[in-house]
Design a protein that fits this description.
The complex is a heterodimer of chains A (116) and B (410). Chain A is an alpha/beta fold and 116 residues long. Chain A is 39% helix and 21% strand. In chain A, α2 (34-43) runs parallel beside α3. Chain A is globular. With 410 residues, chain B is an alpha/beta fold. Chain B has two domains: 2-274, Spore Coat Polysaccharide Biosynthesis Protein SpsA, Chain A (Alpha-Beta Complex), CATH 3.90.550.10; 303-401, Hexapeptide repeat proteins (UDP N-Acetylglucosamine Acyltransferase, domain 1, 3 Solenoid). A seven-stranded mixed β-sheet of chain B has the order 5-4-1-6-11-8-12, sandwiched between helices. In chain B, strands 15, 16, 18, 20, 22, 24 and 25 form a seven-stranded parallel β-sheet that branches. Classes of the chains: A alpha/beta (116), B alpha/beta (410). Chain A binds chain B through residues 62, 65-66, 68-69, 72-73, 88-90, 92-93, and chain B through 99-102, 115-116, 118-119, 214-215, 218, 221-222, 224.
């Protein structure tokens, strides 16, 4: 079973993504901040990370190169309510950039595509 | 000039200066390669930095790593000339260990690890240089070429003899200078069309479109099979996929291929010194239109002392603060404060600061590190076995005398 880490400081969104991905048959781990996420990346076998950008403490764009430094080639989807971070070079290291929506179809399709 | 400055705002310049310089050992055992003395009173990186200054580039990052203290000290002493309040700077950047917990794994990784720096600058173009090359080059002319071709990457290129070319990346170009093939350090380098004895080599001087560079670096960082090297990985992957052009590096005065040397190993280091000598040297340090900046040393003038016979000096560069007594010196490069005793004989040698050459000592085809005391009547470069038992000797037969040995007189 493919394992996905969901990182988001918004409990409701994190829970929503977690549940929908579990329904799709994935094993889902979650973290509410980047520090906890980095610990999981270091210790847990993972196939993909869904990463929020605006989070208190370390933001997603800071966490991204650290995640890739720990696990070269780990797939990462940036999942954010804001479009402007697409211009940041730091966001280009992600495999996909998705604008958050209550409808998770785009996110789920991207997950499926990246884990195919 | 205003145009140049405007254009510069969109250019970020990065000098890679972190290599270990193993093939220059022992000179690099406690120093960064770009911080090594060259031409009497320069350090190797002074040539690249002087080129920047002469090209109107005053915003420079130097990526340092191995032996970075030696480089930092030199940058502080010699290159603390930029005005941060005018937006000018020279920054030394060792591995930050913020996003990744490692040293620079290769030339491409050194830039990848500093992506944040590019993100903050948001340049349109990135000029990537090496800190261990000896040459004079107008980078603005190369940038103009890059813009005129609409290139994603422009690689500066110069013809080199085919038998020496296997140390470099070899470019295959079409009549429009577009790169259609690239071989990194091939055992048997292909010749150039119409000139089979010469190969077109990459000088390790690159202008990238910034966004292309970032995409390529990210893709490379994710590639587990990559050595994260521009020559081995980034350029070969871009040729055929992107618009890669070769900028023919020429001497603007003659229109002929320019002088460029990669000071990669000891014999090249020695040979490049001989290129500085003579009435019309292969590489001229004296042209006023392209000044080379170096550390200002406060020394008295050089003193030539004649007791009975004159001091006999031919085809040499003698830095300030030296003292030579009735010695014979030919085809040598002396750094500041070298003292040469009466009756000493020096032929084809590179002698660093504060060396003492004793009475009647004889030196031939050698590199002498700073502070070495050569006892009276000691000989270097005459008895191959004796030299090899005491000192490193290069493939080309050059004796290197490091300053961590004490020499005993005969």
């Amino acid at each position: 079973m493919k394992r996905i880490l969901v990182v988001d400081d918004d409990d409701a969104i994190r829970l929503l993504i977690e549940m929908e991905l579990q329904d799709e048959g994935y094993e889902v781990l979650s973290a509410s901040n980047a520090k906890d996420a980095l610990k999981l990346v270091e210790t847990e076998p993972l196939d993909l990370v869904i990463l929020d950008i605006r989070m208190p403490g370390m933001d997603g764009l800071e966490a991204l190169p650290r995640i890739l430094g720990l696990r070269e080639g780990l797939k990462v989807i940036l999942n954010t309510a804001y479009s402007q971070y697409q211009e940041s070079f730091m966001s280009w290291a992600a495999d996909a950039y998705i604008i958050k929506s209550a409808d998770l179809t785009e996110l789920k399709n991207k997950v499926k595509e990246l884990l195919a | 000039m205003i145009l140049g400055m405007e254009r510069e705002k969109k250019l970020t310049t990065i000098i890679m200066a972190g290599g270990k310089g193993e093939r220059l050992f022992p000179l690099t055992r406690d120093k960064a390669k770009p911080a090594i003395v060259f031409g009497g009173l320069y350090r190797i990186i002074d040539f690249t930095l002087s080129n920047c200054l002469n090209s109107g580039i005053r915003r420079i990052y130097v990526l340092s790593q191995y032996g970075s203290l030696s480089l930092d000290i030199h940058l502080r002493f010699t290159w603390d000339i930029f005005r941060p309040d005018l937006g000018e700077y020279i920054y030394s950047v060792p591995p930050q260990q913020i996003t990744v917990n490692r040293w620079y794994r290769g030339t491409a990784d050194s830039i990848y690890q500093n992506l944040k720096l590019l993100d903050e600058e948001r340049p349109k173009h990135v000029l990537i240089l090496s800190g261990d090359h000896v040459y004079k080059m107008d980078y603005q002319a190369m940038l103009d070429f890059h813009l005129s071709k609409g290139a994603d990457l422009t690689v500066a290129a110069v013809p080199a003899p085919r038998q020496e070319a296997s140390a470099f990346g070899i470019l295959h170009v079409d009549e429009d200078h577009r790169v259609i093939g690239f071989l990194e350090k091939p055992a048997d380098p292909p010749g150039m069309p119409g000139n089979p004895e010469m190969s077109l080599v990459s000088m390790g001087v690159y202008v990238f479109g910034a966004e292309t560079l970032v995409r390529e670096l990210i893709a490379d960082a994710k590639n587990k099979d990559s050595q994260h090297d521009f020559g081995r990985n980034i350029i070969p992957r871009m040729v055929g996929k992107n618009k890669v052009f070769a900028y023919p590096f020429t001497d603007p005065a003659t229109g002929k291929p320019g002088y460029w040397r990669d000071i990669g190993q000891l014999d090249a280091y020695f040979q490049a010194h001989l290129d500085l000598l003579g009435e019309k040297p292969v590489f001229d340090l004296y042209s006023e239109d392209w000044p080379m900046r170096s550390q200002l040393t406060l020394t008295p003038p050089t003193k030539y002392v004649s007791h009975k016979k004159p001091v006999d000096i031919t085809d040499s560069l003698i830095s300030s603060g030296c003292e030579l007594h009735e010695a014979q010196v030919s085809r040598a490069v002396l750094s500041p404060r070298v003292r040469v005793g009466k009756g000493a004989y020096i032929e084809e040698a590179v002698i660093w600061n504060n060396v003492r050459v004793g009475l009647g000592a004889k030196i031939r085809r050698a590199i002498i590190e700073d502070g070495v005391m050569i006892p009276p009547r000691f000989t270097i470069g005459y008895d191959h076995q004796a030299d090899a038992s005491r000192f490193p000797v290069t493939d080309g037969g050059i004796v290197v005398v490091p300053n961590n040995v004490t020499l005993e007189g005969p």
